[in-house]
TrEMBL record:
GO cellular component, one term: membrane
Species this protein is from: Panicum virgatum
Primary role: May be involved in the transport of sterols.
Name used for this protein in its record: Oxysterol-binding protein
Keyword Coiled coil: yes
Record keyword Signal present: no
Entry coiled-coil feature ranges: none
Gene Ontology MF term list: sterol binding
Keyword entries, A-Z: Coiled coil, Lipid transport, Lipid-binding, Transport
Transmembrane segments: none
Alphabetical list of InterPro entries matching this protein: OSBP_sf (IPR037239), Oxysterol-bd (IPR000648)
Amino acid sequence: MRRRCLNNGNEDHVSIESLTTDKANEDLSYSKRRTKLPEPVEKEKGVSLWSMIKDNCGKDLTRVCLPVYFNEPLSSLQKCFEELEYSYLLDRAYECGLRGNGLMRIIYVAAFAVSGYASTDCRPCKPFNPLLGETYEADYPEKGIRFFSEKVSHHPMVMACHCEGKGWKFWGDSNLRSKFWGQSIQLDPDGVLTLEFDDGETFQWSKVTTTINNLILGRVYCHHHGTMNISGNRRYSCKLTFKEQSFLDRNPRQVQGVVKDADGTKVATLMGKWDESVHCIIGDDASKVKSHGSHQSTGATLLWEKNKPSANPTRYNLSSFAITLNELTPELKEKLPPTDSRLRPDQRHLENGEYEKANAEKLRLETRQRMARKMQESGWKPRWFQRDSEDGTFRYIGGYWEAREQRKWDGCNDIFGNLSSSPKLQPSTLYASSSI
Ligand SMILES: CC(C)CCC[C@@H](C)[C@H]1CC[C@H]2[C@@H]3CC=C4C[C@@H](O)CC[C@]4(C)[C@H]3CC[C@]12C
């Protein structure tokens, strides 16, 4: 059965027949995940960031709404899940540990930590900034994982996530500190990521610095640099170094890692590139690694390799996995809480290539979001996460999937105020009053 396209505007008329057939095929639904975004309704038009900056010169920059053209049709919550594309590395890590190979376990965990960056290559657009209380669920039985995230604070902007896999749980929260340097932006993620295996072994690490270059002139690209320390509660620890960028570097994007035993002896070396692959060499023979350069070392074991790019990357350059993240099928729509990113109207319009409507909705939602600070000050609390009184991190309180089972979304507000179904809204009037 063919998937219905949601860009024809009549997604509300789902026939009972299609629902029941889909119910029967529910466990197979993932094999039908989409492989391309919908065809854009309007023709894409070019706007340069430079013209934006020029036109807004002298204005308070925080008051300038960027037109939707700079966005990709994914929210930051969905991008968090994108970092789990290579979750099979964690399944392998779990199995290795079960077989008593603690060393291979940490090596796979390290490869996973690097793989999360692969999707950031050649992605020139900004994700949507989720609204306070916005959520995103991802149920991917074909990967054996179930992910859930919520935007838990607006000032500072914090997102929390929780993922369950085969033999492991992964959670964390992220708060990006950003510094604007004119031609580039430096992003420093705060917060700790935790991985807990069912046998009690845990690992923790933090993300490295990301720099976004060529904001004004040239092609926008990002670069990840710094050190990442993966510490465990048992024997091994791993230090990963994401190479600093240097002018005319012939081998950029390199990552090198060293795994140490509890007594500090070096037991393995990792090398690779965050946009390509990661290899490892067991033992303390660093010379072998040096003489052969980076990832092509002979005798090195391949741990991870980036998937082939999608055949339909569009101008957002999404991977095949990323293309599936915002898909909204009629049967999924039935199950989602009103806070899910897939229901955000401006993002949906952008995905459909309806830029005028997308801009109007974005403006409306951003205007509403200005009240978020007041909401937080007057005691607003996240629905699914709670701040740990000891370490200040957000932990999932549970109950989301159970509530979904019963479709009981108490305490989940209609944060998008779905005006798309209200005929009174006139996008063009709203757009005209925009500052851009
Ligand atoms: C306004 C336009 C021109 C700028 C486009 C900026 C793009 C390249 C920026 C905006 C937000 C950025 C993301 C924000 C947060 C993170 C988490 C971090 O741990 C890895 C990098 C990653 C995933 C960034 C990658 C680059 C990114 C997608």
